[in-house]
Write a structure and sequence with these properties.
The complex is a heterodimer. In chain A, 19% of the residues lie in helices and 33% in strands. By secondary structure, chain A is of the alpha+beta class. Chain A has a single domain, classed as Hotdog Thioesterase (Thiol Ester Dehydrase, Chain A, Roll). Chain B is of the alpha+beta class. The chains are: A alpha+beta, B alpha+beta.
Chain lengths: 157, 123
């Protein structure tokens, strides 16, 4: 199993940010209007807080290739947890390089757990974001969706 | 010291909203959009992308704290969410720069719990 996966360099573009922000229903005008972005102190349209998903999936070397390398069916994967550290703004025009590392892999009951840490750097090699994901591979499909799912537990329990 | 933040109501999504987010994000996993595949994987119907809910949570933080940037944002996805269900986002500020939030359906069942940290306010 490859422990490290390199995404292809990915350009941050205002039109794609707009599409993503519209699909999510984001309301902050900085994602739609360069004037608003400049007024808010950005040099251009910034990427929203969860925009790294676009980098991971709309990439020439995308997350599906990572799943294929690890032998996973994407439809068996649930997203258990997600965390981001925001180190620096990601701005329209930036070219982002990202490397994903498998930091832990274990089984619990009928589920496989993949802990992935992805570091995103801009064209100046500065870290802009660090993402940490817990992906859960479901091996038992039936009865997955249980009525009265306990409020305080997670998919992981 | 904890301060409750105003609840934010989210209207129910339609299946097309989930198709639109799939296209915008690039996450084309069929459990989010294709009922037949969702059922074959043990779901009663397509489930909303976790990152769709996290995106909503980021929008809520933007509404609560206009102009303040996130420094850290962590969520756990604790329940399946579907089209046709309305949600509420609840939050509390625990310090000047940190808070917690959750997304629930109208019956109170949790879908996402999270925590966030904001940049310091300028002095």
């Amino acid at each position: 199993m490859d422990q490290e996966f390199h995404y292809a360099p990915f350009r941050i573009e205002a039109g794609k940010i707009r599409e993503f922000a519209l699909a999510l229903g984001l309301r902050n005008p900085v994602y739609f209007n360069k004037e608003a972005a400049l007024d808010a102190g950005y040099p251009d349209i910034p990427a929203p807080p969860t925009y790294t998903t676009v980098i991971d999936f709309w990439n020439e070397r995308d997350l599906y290739q990572l799943f294929a390398v690890w032998g996973l069916d994407p439809n068996d994967i649930l997203h258990g947890e997600q965390s981001f550290d925001y180190e620096k703004d990601m701005i329209s025009g930036d070219i982002i390089s990202a490397t994903a590392v498998l930091t832990d892999r274990f089984d619990k009951k009928d589920k496989g757990f993949y802990l992935i840490e992805t570091t995103y750097r801009n064209q100046d090699h500065e870290i802009v974001r660090i993402g940490r994901s817990t992906l859960i591979e479901r091996r038992e499909q039936h009865g997955a969706e249980i009525a009265g799912h306990p409020k305080t537990s997670s998919y992981a329990d | 010291m904890a301060r409750k933040l105003p609840d934010i109501q989210k209207q129910a999504l339609t299946p097309i909203d989930m198709v639109r987010y799939s296209g915008a994000s690039g996450d084309f996993n069929e459990i989010h959009t294709v009922p037949k595949v969702a059922r074959s994987k043990g779901f009663k119907e397509p489930i909303i992308h976790g990152m769709f809910l996290m995106g909503w949570a980021s929008d809520a933080i933007d509404e609560w704290f206009p102009g303040r940037k996130l420094t850290k944002f962590t969520v756990r996805f604790i329940g399946m969410a579907h089209a046709g269900e309305a949600f509420v986002i609840e939050g509390i500020l625990t310090t000047d720069t940190a808070g917690e939030l959750q997304i629930k359906d109208i019956s109170g069942t949790g879908k996402l719990v999270g925590s966030f940290e904001l940049e310091e306010l300028p002095v």
